[in-house]
Amino acid sequence: MLKLGLSGDQRYGSHLPDNHPSGTSTARRDPLQPHLLYIGGEDHHLRIPAMCALRDHGFRITAVASGDPAPFAQAGIRYRDFQFNRFVNPRADWAAIKGLTKILVEEQPDLAQSFDTKPSIFLPLAARSAPGVLAIRTINGRAFLYSSRSPLALTLRPVYRALHKLAARTAAATVFEIGDDRAFFERHGIAGKMPVLIRGAGVDVEGFDRALSSGPSPAQLRQELGLGDAEVVITVTRMTRQKGIPALLDAAARVHEVRPDVRFLLVGPRESEGPLAITQAEIDRHAPYVKAIGPRSDIPALLRLANVFAFPTEYREGVPRVLLEAALAGLPTVTTTMPGCAEVIRDGWNGLLVPPGAPPVLAAKILHLLANREKGLAMADRAAEYVRREFSLATVVAQHANLYRQLIDRASPARFKDRSLAAAREDTCSAL
């Protein structure tokens, strides 16, 4: 039986990347540590706390992503670059599958887990050329294709299901963040051999608390952003139509008519979002009561300065990380009834839910929270307690580690026994 477990002092110092062109560390590796590839996109750095926690569980981690490698190097996590196009581009998708296949063949990991829409199709397809790899796809919602009713989205839905049917043949397991997606995949016969429900990616509660205590004060940020002592409604998301930004702007105008001193703070990328992005002109029409400040690294501090968190998504995503963070920040929340949001917020108990794409209802709920502070804060307290109990990083990582152990035990226990014997022979030869 493979023994797993690392001491905490190894968390920030092992397997540092060097100048090898593949990003492979030349440090000696423990043959009894299962090697896990953790595959994602440009925001994969947000999963670094999970990778570090998995390392503490005894796994050797290599991050595979399309973002900045610097945060991974800082955390002592090996990094492989993996570029892919987030939008519809079959030629680029084929190139991405070939690129991921090359990484799998070179790395020969024991396990590989993918996150986000495209990587979770790419990985099982690429794993056909690396049969020893236990491929795990993660379904973080059904994204654009099932959030939009555009002709393109409707046309591509059968293609999406067909690709996942192929992927299901190779995937050793499929992790679903929400029950609604698992039911959809099972209904269409594409859930695969081992469907598992693990709610969300988890939130690093201790890390978030540290960021709150060490970040800039609300007074500093209010001065920097020109907010004064205004009531602030904040959202943190990509500035796209599927994320409900047009509905939020409409709601902001309605709130402005009733409470003209309220300011809406929009935090997140716009220019990188391609054809799905709202235009700067759409935002500018709502000045000065709407401020869009782009992507930021001080999200905990920004949440703390606000009075209400509004998350107007119309997107079929998994459990939104920012809803968990808003809860930890003690912020009264209004969001939509999309399945991922409803995993976190129970209407009237720990926040408020509104139908997606309903600006009048959204505006009314925002005004309700602004006018009923004590009720809003009581719901926020319940949300914080609920998130700490159900969605903590420790809870979610433990569930993933248990899944990995199950897969290893089922698939190849002899593999690690042979590897241990080989390592013992190597140690004997080295001593001669």
Automatic annotation (TrEMBL):
Tagged with keyword Oxidoreductase: no
Keywords from the named record: Transferase
Origin: domain of life: Bacteria
Region (Disordered) location: 1-31
The UniProt record lists the keyword Transferase: yes
InterPro entries: Glyco_trans_4-like_N
GO MF assignments: glycosyltransferase activity
Protein name per UniProt: Glycosyltransferase family 4 protein
Organism encoding this protein: Bradyrhizobium cytisi
